[in-house]
Amino acid sequence: MVKAPYKITKGAIKGSIWVVRGTYELTAGTTKLLYKIGEFTFEVVSAPLDWPLLNKDIETIDGLPVKESIRLGRVKNSPYTVKGKTYYPMSVKEAGNYCETGLASWYGYETLKQKGGYMTANGEAFNPNGLTAAHKYLPLPTHVMVTNLENHHSIIVRVNDRGPFPSEQNPKSADRIIDLSAGAAKRLGFYEKGIAKVKVEVIQLKEG
Questions:
Q1: Cβ–Cβ < 8 Å for 164, 108
Q2: Burial (Cβ within 10 Å: 0-12, 13-18, ≥19) of residue 32
């Protein structure tokens, strides 16, 4: 069982408020969204249920097979298991005060060369060139500002997947606080390096 190693700043004012133009939550019957937050454009596509999961190590979500949980809409902050360990995501209220500094990496290399689509842990189609991320504990989806502390570049990403988790090749990969898409890593300037020290902060959205 894995519980709450993330950091929430006590007494902090909720993250900065950003105006979002367009609908940003997939609902029943919706298969595609297009919206903007500041200068950043997001395209969200609901993946067919027969697509494979990008993170194949996720075994259950909310006690159900992963795709059944996705079909029933029981993903947002439900507990999930990876290689026998259960992770407990934070509540939406807790997430509003989330701010953490640590290492970021990027993932999804295999999708850059293989044909066919992959599904994230909340049922969205993974786009390696999009502005998305994986996080072990934030509700799905959540929007965060990620700042590369080595060059001070910042972007906003949509957290729609789970990870990073330890791998056989690199058990310490679980110490990283966020996995970004290749497109996000390029915008932050660490695509070639592979990892960077970053600050991750949840932002609040206001429809405008």
A1: no
A2: exposed
Which helix (H) or strand (E) covers residue 40, if one does?
strand 40-45
Range of the domain at 92: 2-207
With 0-12 / 13-18 / 19 or more C-beta atoms within 10 angstroms meaning exposed / middle / buried, residue 139 is buried
Give just the sign of the alpha carbon dihedral 92, 96, 99, 103.
positive
Q: How many domains does the chain have?
A: 1
89: domain CATH number? 2.40.40.10
User: Rounded to 5, what percent of the chain is helix, strand, coil?
Assistant: 15, 40, 50
Of residues 28, 163, 138, the one with CA closest to residue 78: 138
Helix (H) or strand (E) holding 123: none
Q: What is the pTM of this model?
A: 0.88
* 68-97 residue pLDDT tens: 999 999 999 999 999 999 999 999 999 999
- 195-206 pLDDT tens trace: 999 999 999 988
Measured at the alpha carbon of residue 202, what is the angle toward residues 132 and 131, in degrees to the nearest 5?
15
